[in-house]
Fold:
Amino acid sequence: MEKLSNPKVTIEIIKKYNFAFQKRFGQNFLIDSHVIEKIIRAADINKEDTVIEIGPGIGTLTQYLAEAAGKVIAIEIDKNLMPVLDETLAEYDNVEIINEDVLKVDINKLIGEGKTCKVVANLPYYITTPIIMGLLENNVPASSITVMVQKEVAMRMQAKPGSKDYGALSLAVSYYAEPYIVANVPENCFMPRPNVGSAVIKLTRWGEKPVNVENEKLMFDIIRASFNQRRKTLQNGIKNASWLDYSKEDIVAALGKMGLDEAIRGEALTLEQFAELSDFLNK
Ligand code: SAM
Structure:
């Protein structure tokens, strides 16, 4: 069939199946072939690759992925889309559709032991952070994650210390991967149009982590505490976090050893400094 990236073809399919867009599932389908080609190029897919797609929708991006990759495993929550995908992907025999909530699927199991994958998706924006954090923290063996996200989230993912967008998400991304913004994407590339700007970001997993830390979980618990109350000092954030048990003295002593002011805020610390602070508090 002609590709769904042609808006006319998308409209025909939507009408044929009497499909009602569900806002609660973040359904904004791509209708621009140039944007899709950019995503495919950035994701650098070849016939050796297994691609995990999150939220195939009516299969617009999936059609291109199926042509470029060896295998595509696409996870879609909306059961109303199953008959649509049967038709739009009928000519590809390398696509497996899983009708599940991506947050409940064990992706490691889907890929199979010892295998790797690339993740490519136009994400449902209402769950971008849990999806990305899940992929990174659960050590899904993805060499890269190339995704469409809300522009503001893309800015947060690649923010540097001291900037207004810098926070727990920036630190988590920088610990696991190198972020690169591939393109900004205007609203008119989607149907229906979202009411926020969008961007494609590629996260390439580090071969080796950029910092060594004794207790990874503790470092991320400290990071979460430090940004929990943005206007507070780092010291107060950590002291007030119900999931941590440190006194003011413990924290001031650790900051002192690091040569940092006791009134410093979380947004001023680099990933290396959070790792160092975590190692001091771990003792
Ligand atoms: N890939 C299609 C495209 O680019 O045109 C659709 C992208 S649309 C932004 C997001 C898709 O994710 C929708 O099809 C939606 O139903 C699906 N989705 C939403 N929540 C999901 C979840 N928890 N698990 C799996 N898929 C989900």
Observations:
- The pocket of S-adenosylmethionine is lined by residues 25-30, 54-57, 60-61, 75-78, 101-103, 122, 124, 127 (CB under 6 Å).
